[in-house]
Amino acid sequence: MEEFVNEMQQVDYGDSNIITLEGLEHVRRRPGMYIGKLGDGTHADDGIYVLLKEVLDNCIDEYRMGAGKNVEVRVKDGHVEVRDYGRGIPLGKMIDAVSIMNTGGKYDSKAFKKSVGLNGVGTKAVNALSSTFIVQSYRDGQTRRAEFVQGKLVTDSDVFDESGSERGTYVYFVPDNTLFNDYVYKEEFIETMLRNYAYLNTGLTINFNGKKILSKNGLTDLLNENITAQPLYPIIHLKGEDIEIAFTHSDQYGEEYYSFVNGQHTTQGGTHQSAFREAVARTIKEFYAKNMEVTDIRNGIIAAVAISVEEPVFESQTKTKLGSRDMSPSGGISVNKFISDFLKKELDNFLHRNSDTSAILLQKIQDSEKERKAIAGVTKLARERAKKVNLHNKKLRDCRVHFNDSLSKDENKNAAIENSSLFITEGDSASGSITKSRDVNTQAVFSLRGKPLNSYGLTKKIVYENEEFNLLQAALNIEDGVENLRYNKVIVATDADVDGMHIRLLLITFFLQFFPDLIKKGHVYILQTPLFRVRNKKETFYCYSEDERLAAMSKVGANPEITRFKGLGEISPDEFKHFIGKDIRLDQVTLKKEDAVQDLLSFYMGKNTSERQNFIIDNLVVEEDV
Fold first, then answer.
1. What does residue 187 show for φ and ψ, rounded to 5 degrees?
2. What domains are defined for the chain?
3. Please, are residues 205 and 187 in contact by the beta-carbon 8 Å criterion?
4. What's phi and psi for 189, nearest 5 deg?
5. Dist. CA 63–CA 71, nearest whole Å
6. pLDDT tens-digit series, residues 397-438
7. Which residues pair with 90 in a beta bridge?
8. Alpha helices in 175-270 (DSSP H)
9. pTM
């Protein structure tokens, strides 16, 4: 590592490396082109986290170029400070580097190789979308500081001596509240982002609000932090130049992947993830020299793959999916061949040297094969049935745009793809209200007939035997994994009563049992609908809690009309459109290692009736009628 640092520190990075292509345009008017959605901080992919990520990416690029092992991050009350100890932005071009679009060192591959990317776009977008943005660079005993308001320069210190400060760059910004309405940073989202940086850059220390974040074991640490099922064998961890891979298997269904390019978390996968899926199955099949199905080999796999490439091509500005197959990590070969060659050598060697692991892996593959063959007849019939009803599925009222559609240069279409949603409702009355008030471009509806089956403890055979589960699987297009998921948001929309809560539990149990990656990737939500309507002749308030009801009553004055909504079917379509439009309230279903999925499912959905009954009695809360 020290040799790498010394070698890279010799690379010149000066004013001559900063190349200007064109001026800054459109960022404030069309922020979606640069950071995806705006949001208010409720979800991990909201714009305020993308702003922080864009600033951090530059710090990480400095570390990867061998300059600076520490990054300080402070977030408080919506104010963000980031300080790295890299080479510092060249002082003569510092203003241009943070304010003129497509100006930066990343266009000069001599100064930055295999970077996350953007001194050309990222920092400028942060500047433009912040009410206040301050940048200060420290180089060779000198410094320069500039302040911007909504992307416009207001003060510039010019270069002055600062002999006591360590080199590097300091950035302070406050996201513009007129764009990010009432935003709040959630520390858990930031910490997850920073941990990913640490896993991918062993030796880097990030100090976040006084807490040190670092990793000694790279992707092994990442998997240990995220695995919610018991691994069947110790994590296989393989490292090479420009590539790092870690994986194991568990008894959970499906496949689970964490993929990265140049430190960027590609949550939607892409070329490198597909290449890994193909190569790991092929290598394992060749190692055992048996006629295995790739689905049996990959079933239950939990893997992380990280590669470094020069000039990566992503399918969107937010860089969540790697596009091109032609970029070269090393030696001028394609991503596919690079990953394939690496696994063919390193994984094959590992399995030969670790007979205990290879024996457990073989048993897991054989168990998956046995189960697959046992339900082959049921699976075939279910697929044929799903195919027949695909065009005339009475349970599904589809939308026009889907999450697995190809991205385009049309910003509005890409935003629609991102917003594609499937509402899972109970009964005809609820689905009728949503169907009549939905946005037909982006919102689909899947109607359940009564309560779905409790799938806890059942095998995947039930997914194909149960018509409702089979049709839901087909509607979501997740039989072979979530890579081609048809809807970005899978929204459980049930009544806010005991039966509705039970249906929520049954659906979440189904997803946890058979498609846990759907929840881990953040695609499953609960729709919040109002419990009360409070109004007088002039004003109407929809209230989602008792506190909101009391506040509304104080606003409308004496003798308000109060309606308690007990089911979604009671809300008229004209009213319902307000609750699934721009002001939609969604609670994301999340899953962490400490959630101990099997223990939770066993307690809440298992056959321990008396134990659960005592728990309910001890924790019973009686709600008084209005």
1. -60, -30
2. 2-213 (3.30.565.10), 219-370 (3.30.230.10), 376-529+566-598 (3.40.50.670), 532-564 (no CATH)
3. no
4. -70, -40
5. 9
6. 899 999 988 877 677 777 788 889 999 988 766 677 788 889
7. none
8. 187-200, 219-226
9. 0.78
